[in-house]
Each structure stands twice: as C-alpha cells, then as structure tokens.
What does this fold into?
Amino acid sequence: MLTATTRIGRIAAILLTVTAMAGLVGCAPDGGAGPTPSGGDTQTTSQACETVRASVQDAADQVQRLDAGDPSAAVSAFTEVAARLDDAARAVGNRSIADLLPPLRSGFTSASADLSAIAGGDLSRLESLQSAAAQIQSALSAFAAACPAS
It folds into this structure.
C-alpha cells in the first residue's frame, strides 16, 4: 500500500505532466499557411505544429481528465499520448518539428512504465518518474518555443 507521502508525490508528478500538456495542445494555430516549406520539408513549421496538436488532442484531453487516484488510468493515458506522438511523427513533414517529438514520446513512455511499477508497489521508481516528468516538461518547452501561440 502506498504511503500518504508517496501518493502526494505521484499526484504531484501527474499534475505536473497534465499542466505541461496544456502547453502542447492549448494553443490555436495562426490560420495562415506561412512561408513555403524549404530544405526538403513538405510542411511549414506552422503546419507541422498544427499536425502535432491535432494528433495528440484527444489523448491530451484524456490526460487532463485523469483521476489522480487511479494510476492505471494514468498509465493508459500516458501510453496513449506516446502512441499519438508516434502517429504525429509519421505525419509531420517538417524536420525541425519532427526532431522535437522523440524526447517527448520517450518521456511519456517512461512515465507510463514508472507509474505502472509504482502502482504495483515499486516505490523505487519515484525518482525515475520525476525524471520522466522533467523530460516531458523540457520537451514541451522546446515544442512551445518552436510552436508559439499566435
């Protein structure tokens, strides 16, 4: 059984990730086509950013609705976000935006595995969960810098 301190730590990590996810999908596209793609890219940065946002919107909504007391739902939601990021990576036609996705996907995959282990009683994974949350935050910051709100 998890102690109160462990539960608070797990909830804090989930909430950190949920807050960070808002930065990925909370911004509307600028509506303009932007400049013509260059360097072999098939999408402008703006188009690529919108592709990623559209690909992960449903999964991000699921993360935002998480019940912090249900770690299995968090595991499923984080796994779904990682899968959607894979889909987005295949759909993005802009190298600079595509390069931002692997660290984000990796963070969600790690967080999912860590939450699953913690829910099973392996409290040694708390530090790893914190690292995954930091990785997600860092990757989302890079995405937000490349895909600013209009």
Remarks:
- The helical segments are 4-25, 45-64, 71-91, 95-98, 101-119, 126-146.
- The chain has a mean pLDDT of 76.
